[in-house]
Amino acid sequence: MNTTTTLNRPETDKEECIAKCNSLLRGEISAVEAYEKVIEKFADEPEIASLQRFRSEHELAVHKLRAQVIEMHAIPETESGAWGYLTGAIQSAANLIGESSAISSLQQGEMLGQRAYADFLESPEPLPECKVLVRDTLLPMVNRHIEQLEKMNAALAES
To answer: Domain spanning 14-158: which superfamily?
Structure first.
């Protein structure tokens, strides 16, 4: 039985934190999938090293979020779900259009992740250790990716 407070919130925020962490986890799995699609397209391009590094950083984020969910004695997501399917379709279409579109699509995905992390930090449900992970590691990672993807896109537009 789930009792609530006068604010109509669950008495424990653990279940909400698990749900939010699993949502972020699906987003990170989706990011890994999107980067894999773009890396295939950029196999012989100078941007490949940065894109591979971004993918690796998202893989690390997946690992950290999974560990966080497990630490809360819950089962972590293993797939990106419907979000991943949609992201994959958009990324595949962008890849067909060209390199600049592919990079722009990744940048848009990173911006969605940035918003998800900001919303997570503003939410009252997440446990302190979850907020530390997002605030100190995951959000700064996404911010760096956005900045570097902007530079890549600008360089592609000039060439």
So the answer is: Ferritin, core subunit, four-helix bundle (1.20.1260.10)
Q: What is the pLDDT of residues 43-69, one digit of tens each?
A: 887 889 999 999 999 999 999 999 999
Contacts of 17 (CB under 8 A, 6+ apart): 72, 125, 126, 127, 130
Q: Are 112 and 102 in contact (CB under 8 A)?
A: no
What would the pLDDT profile of 103-128 be if each residue is shown by its tens digit?
888 999 999 999 999 999 999 878 89
Amino acid of residue 9: R
pTM above 0.70, yes or no: yes
Alpha-carbon span 131 to 150, nearest angstrom: 27
